Amino acid sequence: MRGVKIQGFGYRGHTWGSSVYRSLPVPGGLLAPSLRSPFNFPRGSLRGSLTKLAYYSTVQHKVARVRSFDHSGKDIDNEPLYEISVQEEITARLHFIKFENTYIETCLDFIKDHLVNTETKVIKATGGGAYKFKDLIEKKLGLKVDKEDVMTCLIKGCNFVLRNIPHEVFAYQKDSDTEFRFQTNHPNIFPYLLVNIGSGVSIVKVESEDKFEWIGGSSIGGGTFWGLGALLTKTKKFDELLQLASKGQHTNVDMLVKDVYGGACQTLGLSGNLIASSFGKSTTADKEFSKEDMAKSLLHMISNDIGQLACLHAKLHNLDKIYFGGFFIRGHPVTMRTITYSINFFSKGEVQALFLRHEGYLGAIGAFLKGAEQDNPNQYSWGENYAGSSGLMSTSPDVSPLQRTRSGTFDMLEMDRLERPLVNLPLLKDPSTYIPDTVDLTDDAMARKYWLTCFEEALDGVAKRAAASQPDSVDAQERAEKFRQKYWNKLQTLRQQPFAYGTLTVRSLLDTREHCLNEFSFPDPYSKVKQKENGIALKCFQSVIESLDSLGWEERQFALVKGLLAGNVFDWGAKAVSDVLESEPQFGFEEAKSKLQGKGRSLLEGPPHKCALIFADNSGIDIILGVFPFVRELLSRGTEVILACNSGPALNDVTYSESLIVTERIAAMDPVIHSALRDEKLLLVQTGSSSPYLVVIEGMGRAIHTNYYAVLRCESLKLAVIKNSWLADRLGGKIFSVIFKYEVPCK
Amino acid sequence: MFLINGQSQPIFPWFGLDIGGTLVKLVYFEPKDITAEEEEEEVENLKSIRKYLTSNVAYGSTGIRDVHLELRELTLCGRKGNLHFIRFPTHDMPAFIQMGSEKHFSSLHTTLCATGGGAYKFEQDFRTMGDLELCKLDELDCLVKGVLYIDSVGFNGRSECYYFENPTDAERCQKLPFNLENPYPLLLVNIGSGVSILAVYSKDNYKRVTGTSLGGGTFFGLCCLLTGCSTFEEALEMASHGDSTKVDKLVRDIYGGDYERFGLPGWAVASSFGNMMSKEKRDSVSKEDLARATLITITNNIGSIARMCALNENINRVVFVGNFLRINTISMRLLAYALDYWSKGQLKALFLEHEVKFLFKICLMAKYKS
To answer: A GO term (biological process) for this protein (chain A) (predicted)?
Structure first.
């Protein structure tokens, strides 16, 4: 297994392959992943054998673009609606990798070959290893190694991950179904306490980006566990000591309260199992104690002590968030468990012990940020790339040693720069408690099993669709297969370790699939399907409008809602639908209407809304024959409409750029839409930005898998057609039932 | 039966037991004002017990009388006499009860007052094996009242409470008496096998703030495992000859000097036993070094927790008591130093001449008096 990973450091190896792939010479230009300085190297951990490297690169990847044809004087009927092209785009990416020091030379060679910007002559480094490899780095790269303060780097890194990575923080609960309980990111991360348990313990209070203070520490830390443990048990390795500890019985070595008080504990109301004196039973020269028992006792002693001090400091400074890090914690369930126990005990449940998914990278990230101050990455928003990141690995003894080795020796995290920061919709009633996702699949084992199977079953179809979307590319088949393989592996990982990337949700499964598709240059596998469906639907637009206009007011309202819902049947993401669409290409709007179970209600009673915000779902019939007639009705009533579509492609969801073309074409046919566009009564946006009085959220992904429970400050309508029989069952309905959730905020 | 102050007094012998996790502490009041009449009436049993206890300094293989702690010519419940302090390991408790049974202790119709967890644990054994009823007293109550009482009594004319002046200066550091006339509020840190920390606001108003399992039992237990020693005294003796800086990783070992960013001095311990992560260093340290490091680790930790409690409770006087500090000057001076250094002189560490729970007996008698 190690061999494979190390290959990763070559230029073509398996693990590294993902990055290399994107950066291989492509027709029309040669672009390497430009490792732009400043980057930082290395941060040796106390393990002494691992280096963490953070660097910034620009990554070239493909994006799908749509462009309207000039239709003047042409036969529109036989032309596709718009032109689709795949273009190269360069985006920024942060890479964080962790590897054994043995491979440092290979790594340095790689960097040397890819280093493009040589303006910076300095490399920022932190940690003990910074000294160790100083000469080597300076010689190989011709750069000056600049040492940065460990704790400053650690805190900078910590702030960065807390701000940018969703579900970065988790609480550990060994004895519940979900070992890892992820926390929703809070907009305000300060103040907090960072307890770093390296060889000793540092307790730092962080009040803002630049303001932090060492408020205490303890010499009893990871080094004590390791050093004293090695003396007591003759076991040399830290990991082995933890293994021993997880098998031991501390009660053979520790003096418990019940050993002092005897059976009277119950009548006295004492907890007999509390430790009265650590190692209190080993006060004799003539008894042998097992290695396991001693290691366990030592683990408890140290964890309890650290927890107690952390609580005392938290109390003194009135803080309730404590993040734990350092090699003592680093992904070890054994220590996370004992620390959590200790914090609960000493704070009487008032303080929560919190851990970070990327704790091991904090120093490297911080050193990187120190070096990148001119081009401050903090001014951008970054998102975790699920395709390129290894994810959190459980190191608990019951996970196979193979995976343990893997996480211990090679691991990576990639973050892509987002084009714009993601913000909460200002209309949320309580943004701080907003959790988009309806079902937590980390928690709900049954739902998890179902959805993972669902995504597995759909995978062949998606891969096929991806290959078909690029008929002119010679290697499309091969890349589609690689995509299939990669996503399949991700799904298998998630089956075993659902917590690998934070809380598992339907949304994160979808995102992971998009990241994997992008990884293999399939920016928009459904582009052709969408193009065709948009074309077909546009042709029907006018007749749909005519038939609606022929109805009386009340009848029309029902028909509009029914149309909205029927349009939402056309979803390639739902297997029940894609099966129909594959086998009955002529399946149309009327057929969809007849599939619907139940009926909606009229929405537009009462005085007209001033403004409405609509989050639209699918391309084709959905947006053109479902959403647009509804938009048109709103506009005719004097309501301004903001139509929000996805920025990037996801299945057959309509993208912002597609919506622009579609709207333009509709405007050409329809005077209502035309004048609304002209007068800016109809706005097309990528995110909601105005102040609407009605929010319409359409589709399963937006209104059921997420946002179902979101409470807004204005009227809202969440509507979708349930296109999944398992989900329908769960909700107590039939497939193609309608969700129509209209909410008025309480005054 | 227990009316005192010239009206009546407890029946001799006057004993008190503090049965801790590791050690049993026994106090015995030897009346020195026995009248001829009393002497005649004194049953043979009682006489032999008195003779046995006062004429020996060691009992069996593990019992020891701390002669240097003896309080002479003390007036207690209207009687003059000497107070003796005897200790033996808790695991010899069954033998002690057995002895009591053989010597027909029960025929003396005395009530044994006892405190500590063992008062509960061994209550049934006393009853069945020794035919004795224990009078159990709350441990923390005894502790608090004992501290306050002993200071009022004094130690053979000297002050019971003392502190170290200039604890941060090895040359000028000296032990000086401290007047505990206005004792409140004070933080009371009792270091036995484990550690209990109490905030005392008045004689009757105190609370247990917290405790830690890293106490005297941990020092002794770890020393036994690391060095093969078998007594606490042996462990302390070893510690006094060792060098903990060979075992511990200091701030200067990591940063080459002070860590200025955080204001940490180079001599501070960064990681207890941190050097022992390396095999070469493990092979090069002595048992004495290990014993010293264990002592320093435990002591520093207690100091650190005590300091945090003092800050949280807003108390600036910390009284350290407990058997761990008996003959343990290294720890006392380190506690004094650590508290002074890390609090920038705001906190004062105080100590008592007597292991205070030894003193609970006095407090107990005082209790009967009132």
So the answer is: coenzyme A biosynthetic process
CA contacts within 13 A on the Cβ side of A616: 36
ipTM for the whole complex = 0.90
CA distance A289 to A7: 44
What does the pLDDT average to over A392-398?
49
Residue A373: pLDDT band (50, 70, 90) is: low
- Which of A212-216, A305-309, A387-391 is the least confident region? A387-391
Query: What is the rounded distance in angstroms from the CA atom of residue A607 to the CA atom of residue A568?
Result: 27
Helix intervals (H) in B203-359: 216-227, 232-241, 251-255, 279-284, 287-313, 329-342
Q: Report the C-alpha gap between A744 and A185 in whole angstroms.
A: 27
Mean of the per-residue pLDDT values of chain A: 79
Which chain B residues are Cβ-neighbours of A277 within 8 angstroms? 21-22, 192-194, 213, 215-218, 221
pLDDT over threshold 70, residue B107 = yes
Please tell me the predicted confidence (pLDDT) of residue A275: 95
pLDDT confidence bin for A304, thresholds 50/70/90: very high
Can you tell me which residue has the tokens 């619907």?
A: A596
**What tokens were used for B112?**
């044994």
Residue A635: predicted pLDDT: 92
Residue B82 has pLDDT above 70, yes or no: yes
pTM of the model: 0.81
Q: Which amino acid is residue A56, in one-letter code? A: Y
Query: Percentages helix, strand, coil for chain B, rounded to the nearest 5?
Result: 45, 25, 30
Q: Using a CB-CB distance cutoff of 8 angstroms, which residues of chain B are in contact with residue A216?
A: 304, 308
List the beta strands (DSSP E) in A173-283: 180-182, 192-197, 201-206, 212-218, 255-256, 275-277
Beta pairing class for B161-165 and B174-177: antiparallel
Query: Coil, strand or helix: which one is A541?
Result: helix
Task: Give residues 315 to 354 of A whose Cβ lies within 8 Å of B.
Answer: 315-316, 346
Q: Which two tokens stand for residue A80?
A: 């596709």
Residues B187 and B211: their CA atoms lie apart, in Å, by 12
Strand partners of residue B74: B81
Which H or E element spans position B279?
helix B279-284
CB B29 within 8 A of CB B362: no
Collect all residues with Cβ–Cβ distance below 8 Å to A192 and sequence separation of at least 6. A205, A206, A319, A321, A322, A323
Determine the pLDDT at residue B153: 66
